[in-house]
């Protein structure tokens, strides 16, 4: 029994610090990969979306997250007035807008 416990015990050599440094280095590499592959692109997309929502103006054609197509007829701080038909206008949150076609911009071809 004692021989099994001795075999499982860590070595008493003077090179124990190398394993710790390797572990720290591996964690640093994993954090760097996580940052460059996940966090940084997400932050970039978030900034682009914020810029898109801030640039909305009267006359832009938009599509909401719910799939409603319309034209912007009024702009407020957090909401926009969306004209769906000649007689129907709806107030929606800016954050619910998913696609914006600027005034004068050619719409994507319908397939």
What do you see in this structure?
- By secondary structure, the chain is of the alpha+beta class.
- It has two domains: 18-54; 57-101, Roll (SH3 type barrels).
- Helices cover 41% and strands 23% of the residues.
- The chain has two helices and five strands.
- It has helices at residues 2-8, 17-54, and strands at residues 61-64, 69-75, 79-83, 89-93, 97-101.
- A five-stranded antiparallel beta sheet has the order 4-3-2-1-5, with no helix packed on it.
- β3 and β4 form a beta hairpin.
- The N and C termini lie far apart (76 Å).
- The model has no long low-confidence stretch (mean pLDDT 84).
Task: Write a brief caption for the model.
This protein is of the alpha+beta class.
Helix content range of the residues, please? 40-55%
Total number of helical segments?
2
- How many strand elements? 5
Structural class by sheet pairing and helices: alpha+beta
Average pLDDT over all residues:
84
**Coarse shape:** rod-shaped
In the CATH classification, which architecture of the largest domain applies? Roll
CATH topology of the largest domain: SH3 type barrels
Cα gyration radius (Å): 28 Å
Order of secondary-structure elements:
HHEEEEE
In angstroms, what separates the terminal alpha carbons?
Answer: 76 Å
Strand content: 15-25%
Described by strand count, sense and barrel closure, the largest sheet is: 5 strands, antiparallel
**CATH class of the largest domain, anyone?**
Mainly Beta
What is the domain total for the residues? Answer: 2
Stretches with pLDDT under 50, minimum 5 residues = none
């Amino acid at each position: 029994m004692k021989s099994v416990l001795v075999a499982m015990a860590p070595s008493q050599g003077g090179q124990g610090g190398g394993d710790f440094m390797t572990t720290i280095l591996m964690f640093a590499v994993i954090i760097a990969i996580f940052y460059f592959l996940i966090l940084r692109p997400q932050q970039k997309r978030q900034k682009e979306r914020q810029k898109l929502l801030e640039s909305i103006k009267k006359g832009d054609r938009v599509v909401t997250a719910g799939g409603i197509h319309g034209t912007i007829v009024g702009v407020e701080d957090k909401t926009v007035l969306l004209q769906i038909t000649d007689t129907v206008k709806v107030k929606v949150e800016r954050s619910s807008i998913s696609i914006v076609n600027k005034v004068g911009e050619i719409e994507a071809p319908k397939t």
